[in-house]
Amino acid sequence: MSTASRRRRLQALALAGAMAAALAVIALAGPLAPTRIEVAAATVGDLTPTVFGIGTLEARRLHTVGPVRSGRILRLEADHGDSVERGQLLAELDPVDLPERIRAAAAAVAELEHRIEAARARLQAERARLRLARRQAARYEALGRRRQASAEQVQAHETEARAQAAAARAAEAELAALEAARARARAELQALQASREALRLRSPVGGIVVARLAEPGDAVLAGTPVLRIAEPATLWVRARVDQRRARGLRLGLPAEVRFRRDPGRTLVGRVARLELMADPLTEEEWVDVALDPAPRGIPLGSLAEVVIRLPARRGVLWVPTSAVQRHGGRAGVWLVREGRVAFRPLALGVSTEDGRTEVVAGLRAGDTVVTHAARPLRPGMRVSVGTRP
Question: Which of 3, 85, 279, 378 has its C-alpha lying 20 to 30 A from 313's C-alpha?
Answer without folding.
Answer: 279
